Structures are given as C-alpha cells and as structure tokens.
Amino acid sequence: MTFFLKPFSFLVKKGSLFALFLVAQLTFSQNAPITILGDSKTSADFFTELEEKSGYSFFYLDDWIENIEIEQNFQEATITEILDSVLSGTQLNFYVSEEEKRIFLLQNGIIYDDLPSGFFGRQDSIVQGQNTIGTQNAPPPAFFAETNVQTTDRLPLVRIGKADRQDLRESYSLSGKAINARTGEPIPDLAIRIKGRGTMAITDEQGNYNMELPAGYNVITTSAMGIKDLEREVIMYNDGSLNLDLGESLEQLDEVVVEADAVSNVEEAITSSEEIESEESKNIPLVLGERNILEVAKALPGISSAGEGASGLNVRGGKTDQNLVLLDDAVIYNPTHFFGIFQALNPFTTEKVNIYKGAAPVEFGGRLSSVFDIETKNGNVEKISGEGSIGPVTGNLALEIPLKKEASSLVIGGRGAYADWILRSLDDESLSNSEASFFDGIVKYHHRFNENSEVRGTAYYSKDNFSITSDSLYNYSNRLFSVRWAHKLSERTNGVLTAGNSDYNFGIDYESEGNNDFELDYAINESELRYKLRTRLNEGHALDYGLSAKYYSVNPGSIEPKGNDSNVAPVDIEDEQALEGALFLGDEFKVSDRLLLSLGARYMFYAAMGKATQNTYEEGAPRNETTVQDTISYGSGEFIKTYGGPEARISARYLITPDFSVKASFNNAYQFIHTLSNNTTVSPIDTWKLSDLNIKPQKGYQATLGFYKNFEENMYELSLEGYYKRMDDVLDFKTGADLLLNENVETEVLQGKGKAYGVEFLLKKNRGDFNGWLSYTYSRSLYKFDGDYPEEQINNGEFFPSNFDKPHDVSLIANYRLTRRFSFSMNFVYQTGRPVTYPIGTYRFNNSDYVIFSDRNKYRIPDYYRLDLGINIEGNHKKNKLAHSFITIQVYNVLGRNNPYSVFFVTEDGEVKALQSSIFGVPIPSITYNFKF
After folding, report:
1. Residue ranges of the alpha helices (H) in 411-510?
2. Which of 532, 598, 589 minimizes the C-alpha distance to 273?
3. Which of 244, 654, 716, 908 is most enclosed, with most CB atoms within 10 A?
4. SS3 73
5. 236/853 Cα distance (integer angstroms)
6. Alpha-carbon span 852 to 749, nearest angstrom
C-alpha cells in the first residue's frame, strides 16, 4: 500500500533560513545514537524498548513483526541504521515523521513526501508503478481503491516484493508454481493472464511459470481444463513469487475433453516428440487383453520392432541398444516380459511416457536414437484408491495410499502371470513341461514439503522365468530405484536433484541326461547422479543447465559346473568398469512471437577403468587371436582409455499461422555402451559391452524438418516429418561369431557406418465419438562394414539393409463410442517384411555337405499385417459404488494371418528346406475384467 502525507516540502522555501534550521533539526533527531541489545529479545520487546529509547512512537500491526528474528546488538547506532538492518530481510519499509515524532512501518510500500514530476498530467487512475521523488521518467506511485480490493469470488489481495527507491521500474517479474491442491502434483500448461492485457504465461511440466507484470495493481486469472478458474489481485512492488494452489473442477459435463496442451505440437520448438498417456492403451486391442504403452508407441511413425514377439524397439533406423529407457529417471534395460510380448510396466501405476526421436532435452544423453522417459503417477493424497484387472494370463493390482493428507502418498503396484497352463494345455508333447512366468512390482513414495520443495522415491523389480525345452531354465530380472528432489532456489531458479541405480541380469540353468550341466550368469549395474537447474532470465530466455555422472559395472558372464558329475569347465570373464559424465546447457530463446529457438550443448566424457587387461593388435593385420601384440594390465581405478566430445541440440520453430508451424532440428550424440548379439531379434541373453581400448563409442548425427498443422479448433492434428541420420562406429558381428563368454570379444565384432532416412506422416483425431490416428512411415536403415581385410567386411563393404529395415509401415488406431458405456476399437498394422539371409546353394567337401549363403539380408520374409478388434463395456456410472468396472473383449489377429516371426533352414535328405516360425498364427480371443475404486 502506498501512503501520501501532507507534504512538508511546502513549508520549506528554497533558500530560507527556516528551511536550513528545520533540516538541521530533522538530521540531528534521526542521528541521535542509541544502544540496544537484540539477541535476547522477542521482536515485540525489541520494538517496545526501541520506542522508549528513541522517543519515537511506532505504528504497526503485531502480526507484521512477529516472525522477525533479531539477533544482533546495536552500539551507538542511529534509529535509521537500526531499522534498515532489522527490516532488511523482510517486506517492511518505514517512514519517519519528525514533526510528530512518529515512525510508521509499511507493508511493501513507500510513503512519499512529494508527488512526482508530471503526475497530474497522467490520465491513469489505476496503479502503474512507483517513483523516486523528482524523477522525470519513472512510473508514478501506486493507487488503488480499498473498497474494490476484495470481492467474494476472489482470493485475498497479495502484495509482491518490497518497494525500493533505488530500483523503481515500469514492470516487475512474478514467478511461482501451480499445484493441484488435491493431489499435490504440479499443473502443466496452465494459462496465466493479466486481466485487461494481452500478456500471458504458460506453466511448464513442473508447474513453474514466470511473467512480467506492470508495477502496482493487477488482476491475474488462471485457466486450464479440469482446474477451477482463479482470479487473484496482486500489487507489484518489486520482483517476487506467488505459488498457486488450485482446485479441480468437478462439474458434470456431457463430454470431458482434456486439451490443455492441444497446440503444443505446433507451438513447441522441439521436434519429433510424442507423449502417450497410459490411459490411451485402455481401449486399444492388444495381445491377450494386456495394456501395453510400449506396444502403442509402435503404432506411432518412426517406431517399430524387428518382429512380433521381439524385445526392444527400433527408432528411425537405430538399433535397440540406441534407446535410453527411463523409469522415473532410472534406466531399465529390458522393459518387457516373455520375449517382448508383454511390457514389464504396470499400466495402472504408469502415468505417461514422453518419447524423443530427435533432439532430446539437453539433460538426456548416452544414446543415439531416442529417449523413452516413463513417469509413474503420484498417489492420491486424500483417500485410498486403487485399480486392477484380471485377464487370461495376468492379474494386476495398484493401490494409492495417502500417508499425510494433501502432502504425501504411497503407490504400490503388483503384477503376476499364470501362463504355464496355456503351454501345458497345447497339443504338443515337447511343451508339456514348459514354464513361462513373470512378475513385477513397484513402490513410489511422494511427499510435498511445501510449495517450494517435494521429493519422490521409486523402487521397482521384475523377474522372468521361462523354459521352452525340458533341459534349460532361463531367467532375467530388472531392479532399480531412484530418488528425485525438486526444489526452488529463488524466484527465477528451480533445481532437480536425481539419484538412481539400475541392475539387469540373466541366467541359464541347464540340466540334461549327460554330464554337461551348468549355470551361467551375466549382470550389468549402473549408478547415476544428476543435478539440473532451470532459470528464467526473462520472458525471452529460459536456461536449463547442470551436470551428471554415471558409474558402470559389468559382469560379462561366468559359467560354473552344476553338480559334482558335470564336465563343464568354469569360465569367469573379468569385470568391466567405466565412468561417464556430462555438462549441459540449454536456452529456450523466444526471438519473436513467431520464431522460437531451443539451443543446447552437452560435453560428454567417458573413461574405461581397471582393474582389467587389454590386448593390443599388430598394425596392418586383421584383429584376431594370432595378431595379439601385447597384453596390458591396468590397476583398480586406472584409466584405460578416455573418449568424449561436444554434443549439439538445436531446434527451431516458426509459426506460419497460430495453428501451422514449420520446425527444424539438428543433434549429435555419443554412445559408450553396446549390445553384443548375433540373433536376428533382441534376446534376453544379449550382453552389454562397454567401450574400451579396442571398441570405440558410437557416434550419431541427425537432421529433421517437419510441418505441423491443427484443424477445427485442435480436433485434428496433422504432421509430416523428414529425417536423415548418420552413424559411425556402430557394432555388428562377424559371420559365425562367438560372442557369449568370449574373453577377446573384440576379435568377433566389427565397427562400421550406418545411415537412415525417412518420411513420417501422422493424422490424429483427438475427440468425438470417433477418434484415433493413422500413421505411415517410409524409411530405410542401412549399414556398411568395410574393413581392410575380407574377414572384416560384410557384403564386400557395401551398404546393406539392417535386420529391421522395413520401408513401409502403416498403423491405424480407431475407437468408436456407441454410448457412454459401449465402445468399439480397432488396431490394424501393415509392415514390409524384414530382411533375411537365405542359402543360395550347396557344395560337397570331404564327403560333407555345406551351405552357401547369400549376401547378408539380401532377401525378405513375407510382409506382415494384422487386424485386432475389441469391444469395451463400462459398468454403470453411479457415484456411490464400491468399485467401477470395465470389461474388454478382444480378438488379436482376427484374420488369422500366419505372420512369420523368423525363417530358418534345415537340410533333409541332402535338400535344404526353408521353414518359418510364427508367434500367433491364429486368432487369439481374450476377456479382461478391470475395476477401479
């Protein structure tokens, strides 16, 4: 509030002796020395004693000073020195009236003795700012009518900042965080406007905002789908913060459409990004009725897999190991169950996944192709709730438990399979003793300390056991945990500190009638610490910066004889260790209303470390065991080899119209970890290998250009993107390579070049009774291995298609709501058959028949297509029910297409025969019961 007293300046006439005398008296009174002790008194006692010793009468409200901590003592100090020190860390100013021996404490504002120059020439009746006495161009003081300050439909007036005569501006910065008052979660994409002006700010994913407001009185409004609208009166005295606790809008509507970020695909600078809510998999018919957010991702352009039942995803022509898959900031190495048929993520605890196929946010690195950032939902902080399902193969349950109302919660999810009965019921004696089971569990704790600080912790574990043959039991598991602390450092800066650990291992337990029983184990473990800061400099700049550090520990494998009679010789490959670090800086720069830039840079550092031994090989000779030149031993923690370099993340968006934009991006990346596999598709027993003295890191470069258009008030989204990607030092295997438990595995692999290019089309209908999307991708993925020696070449050193090169890929997802309770869904997929290597002849040598194979991946298996249909039946929508039900009836592969999973060749009676295997060659019906309470 700004006060005006009767100006005493009218009594002081320039040049008069009376004026000089009055000024001298005022100066003497205010400079009278005072000694007062403050470190042992309450604030009320301190001001009472100060009033007695100074001779001034103080005027203030008790609650203004009750939180002031006074720790210092004052010796021979003036009254102004004492007040300047005591009030420096508060929002209080003071005004001294010498005539009446009074001191007024003021909330935020300043009392002026004189009107600013030109004040009466202004027409504004509403506050526009404050002014230093006599300043010509500074804004005038703030006025507002007390009777209009508060109305019944608004929250109380709030004062921001502390007025400072030395820092008077036309506008000040207001920042803060928007929080859902019920769940404690941040509210992204909330629109915050200044009433009567065109200024607007949008909250980011963490609910943070920053905007410039005119000095003085303002009314801000907020709006977002599903959130109650808010009006708040604020008076800006200086820069400051205001956190917004907003309630949910529970109004009954005929149709609820969530489109707070409906134009983000057009307006954001980042290219090639997708977001999938877990709920989107609810109505999509998938195998055995299982919700699968990763399977839904494969229906988007540019994302595919090597085949049905294949683990891992191929993004824009990249290998499966080139994807960084994160679950609440911790890496998950194999996010699938049962050869990729099911996801290893609980759909009822998963909130969403953000997919970056191009220039990912600057804090992510270490992979060439993509980032899958999977988030677990925060729990309900008001009441216990839950969700579950019972299907033909799995049972699933998730609970949300409030621990402290409106502050902390716990999410617990568990999921298990009972698929063994399916294998045992098949009319195939070889499968009668088969086993296939898995489970996964997750726990997430979330606590909101206040508006400026919150913490979350996640622990996850999954386990698979399967035995398709009677003599081998395979198992693999994922374990991870992470802790994330989000906090506000200042009005403009927020920080996120993340720590995580991930562990993946697999094993084979082999028992046969002979004496060759064994146990095989493999494991990889990594720990990461990352600190990211975000500073909003102004409306045009938002900086993201920080650092990360990661430690790898790999057990490449060991084999031990099982039982006293086993003849298997033990093998134990020495462990591998490495450090990986990064510094990153990004700036989202708003050049104009049409042009938005996102500029980022990372510097990557990697060091392979001992304890280890490394071979060196002769120059000018092929790398094999006969050309080993020396073996070097490295001590524990000693650097073996270091790699690193800069990475660029550059994106630009230009708005042609408000709903039509063009974007371009470029990025490059380093990858220091690789998978070793000579299978056509990803296998649970694929091993990971760290870069070292003989295996270089992979490097990738990608450029993207795209056009994005929304129609009919964002009901339809249309995008067209083209990309070109180049890769260096990618790994592949030599023909006949032996990769598992190989001490000199560098002699079995090759490093070469890769290139991928394509065009991606997506048409999406976001709302209405009929909704869904159509995607089409034309892409090529080619690799080249051209060494100096024939054994280091593949296909004579020419480019050849990768195992997952499928030029044409079409997906159609459609949902039709017949009534509020009944809906129909469809999923159609068509893909070009993937490449395969065929035998093209035979020859006989020493009375034995041998097969001659074609160039690698010269031929293709038949094209793949599949149609899935589903009926979704919701229970009645009565409010007071113990649980709400949802039944899905689905048929996977309605057409019974016998799509080949792989093609292999056998020799019978001297004749080579081609055989194919299929995962699901017949229609697979399923019914799943879902419930929610």
Report:
1. 420-425
2. 598
3. 244
4. coil
5. 78
6. 22
Domain map of the chain by residue range? 3-114, 146-246, 266-932
- 329 pLDDT exceeds 90? yes
The domain made up of 146-246 is a member of CATH 3.40.50.300: no
Fold of 266-932: Maltoporin; Chain A (2.40.170)
As a whole number of angstroms, the distance between CA 201 and CA 207 comes to 11
Would you give the DSSP letter of residue 186? B
Amino acid at 322: Q
Tell me the HSE value of 45 on the side-chain side, using a 13 A CA sphere.
10
Q: Taking a C-beta distance cutoff of 8 angstroms, is the pair 302, 273 a contact?
A: no
Contacts of 17 (CB under 8 A, 6+ apart): none
Contact 403, 412 (CB under 8 A): no
Nearest to 358 by CA among 270, 267, 265: 270
Q: Band the pLDDT of 910: cuts 50, 70, 90.
A: low
Q: Give the model confidence (pLDDT) of 882-895 as tens digits.
A: 677 888 899 988 99
689 half-sphere exposure, CB direction, 13 A CA radius: 27
> How far is Cα 598 from Cα 541, in angstroms, rounded to an integer?
10
Fold identical between 3-114 and 266-932?
Answer: no
The structure tokens listed for 424 are 């045992």
Contact 354, 326 (CB under 8 A): no
Query: How, if at all, do strands 541-561 and 576-590 pair?
Result: antiparallel
Helix (H) or strand (E) holding 375: strand 370-376
Is residue 755 a contact partner of residue 731, using CB atoms and an 8 Å limit?
no
**Tokens encoding 711:** 């129609």
Report the candidate in 77, 76, 82 with the shortest Cα–Cα distance to residue 96.
82
Task: Assign 429 to helix, strand or coil.
Answer: helix
- Domain 3-114 fold: Phage tail protein beta-alpha-beta fold (3.55.50)
The SS3 assignment for 300 reads coil
Question: How sure is the predictor about 430, in pLDDT bands with cuts at 50, 70 and 90?
Answer: low
At 301, the amino acid letter reads P
Indicate the residue type of 380.
N
Contact indicator for 204, 172 with CB cutoff of 8 Å? no
Read off the amino acid at residue 387.
E
Residue 125 Ramachandran class (φ > 0 left, ψ -120 to 50 alpha, else beta) = alpha
pTM of the model: 0.75
Q: Are 748 and 792 in contact (CB under 8 A)?
A: no
Residue 239 phi, psi dihedral angles, 5° rounding:
-60, 145
Contact status, residue 424 vs residue 432, Cβ threshold 8 Å? yes
pLDDT band of 880, cuts 50, 70, 90: low
- Classified as helix, coil or strand, 672 is coil
Q: According to the model, what pLDDT value does residue 639 have?
A: 95
Q: Comparing C-alpha atoms, which of 696, 686, 684, 689 is closest to residue 674? A: 689
Kindly tell me the burial class for residue 932, based on how many C-beta atoms sit within 10 Å of its own C-beta (0-12, 13-18, 19 or more): middle
Q: Is the bond preceding 357 in cis, omega lying within 30 degrees of 0?
A: no
- Cβ distance 608 to 639 under 8 Å? yes
- pLDDT band, residue 15 (cuts 50/70/90): very low
CA separation for the pair 784, 800 (Å, rounded): 6
Strand partners of residue 801: 782
* Sign of the Cα pseudo-torsion (745, 746, 748, 752, in order): positive
